[in-house]
Amino acid sequence: MANTDVRVDKHGNVHIAKKNRIRRFGLVDGVLLFFLTLLALLILYPFYNAFLVSIVPNTVYMRYKGLMLWPPALTFEAYEFTFKSSLIWTGYRNSILITVFGTIYNMVLTILCAYVLTKPIPGGKFIRFAIVFTMYFSGGLVPFYVLIRDLNMMDTLYSMVMPTGINIMYMLIISNYFKSLPPALEESAKIDGATDLRILWSIILPLSLPLLATFTLYYAVERWNEWYNAMLFVKSVNKWPLQNVLRTIINDVNMMATQNIPGQAKPDIQGDAIKMSSIIVAMAPIMCLYPFLQRYFLSGLTLGAVKE
Amino acid sequence: MTAQTAVRPRKKTFQHTLRVMWDYRWIYLMLIPCLAYFIIFKYVPMYGIQLAFKDFKLAGIAASPWNNFEHFKYMMSEPQFLPALRNTLIISFYRILFGFPFPIILAIMINEVYMPRYKRVLQTIYTFPHFLTWVVMAGIMLNLLGSTGMVRKVSEVFVPGIGENWNLMYNKNAFRTILVVSDIWKEAGWGTIIYLAAITGIDQSLYEAATIDGANRFQRIWYITLPGMINMIAIQFVLRVGAVMEGGFDQVFNLYTAPVYETGDIIDTYIYRLSFVKSTGINLGFTTAVGLFKNVINFVLLMLANGVTKALGQETVL
Question: Given A67, A142, A307, which is nearest B288 (Cβ)?
Fold first, then answer.
């Protein structure tokens, strides 16, 4: 064992390594790091380019040929124009409303449903089947559209909040977690005369906070990203969430210009710059929050992967 | 007849069931809003499926007269239906061929990085686009690939006569490639998470033993990491194949334009366009029928996929 190195790390794990095989930075590591870093840059560059286009003056951008890595000149005209647009502001307001109310609605329904499914109630198996069945089969687009029309939800905030209630995958993961909590806690509370609602509120929920935080975050991102129901049901421009405003700006910059100053054409700012500044403004909340909340963002899927 | 039935205290009577239900009254109370949600927004649209066999009138579902299988007969002769079906399958096939292995390879590569902090930075970057919408992604892609975009400008240097109106987004031959590549761009990082979780579950002592036995890095990947992931890969693969009728509405809808309908139109965008773009004037019963056609195939495939994953030893939800 002359050339073997035995080492115990701070967690008490024993590492055995042959001296000449101690991990060092080899050629393979170099190639690997080079490739992975390149991939990261490729993923990021389109966003960076969008940012550059939004801050480079029109005339400079039009003449520019080649890969832009650094802004040749700076202007914030596009951002000034974007922030003057009433559409962006109503879009922000509507998206925030949808996110706040939608996430509360999602979490209340999801938690209730998850908790109910942990109980051996008569009919429980059938209810579980009926719920999971909707994951695999749906009425399709037209019946859904007719439903919202018949509910008189067309062109309302409700049409963007109410139809998206429970993500069944999230609900089942939460339900499994509830089931894994020690039943003794619940039983003792029951002996003390607590109702099921009380137990859920005072015992189950406080014990599940980290998991619930993760799924609240997932729901919040989904609601913030809402555009599909809005596209189907909401015709009034001032009720649109941000994503739909963005869609319109990307397809037609002039629309925003006429919203800004009625009757006046687009000012002499490059259309692309306005599009990109709008995108950056719309992305900003996620861009700012993501690096700090990344740990929560990434934990949810692994929770789902854990076998019960 | 058996000991088991004899031991059971008494038969479940109706009264007994009622008493149990009364004990769970709070639970049933909690169930009401959930059931209301599922009935209204999931099961009522299923009632609307009958439109597939009806001639839709604005008055509503009940007021529309039956026309039996007219819509299904018309489906085969509708000029855009079969191309949309073909495109859906081809695009799904490309996604499975190129998009499916990508996160697996990426997960293995990420796992080989021994610098924990840099590893986390990389993962953060790879996963970021997942949290954006295809609306944003499409805008950013248009900025790069469109007629004023960076790609045309750089190409102009090498190919002088490329033309002012050269626009990759309008190129029907490039469209499927754009779909597959941009899907990898957005979702591959997210896809690695589940595989990295599987790798975390591998017993570390296997690696140490292999190292002592003189296995090099590629041998360790081939004989330990990959076998450790293979169950997860199989499950993901089956589920992916089960969803073959889903062409990715959000992505295609935000990226496609009339010039690329020929190669890019999928069933979902076809249904949307025929239902809601005014000029087509098609009966909504017809698009309901197309939706039903798609959903039934989807359902059968998913059930098969579920059966296979169950056989692979994974718990399934249904």
Answer: A142
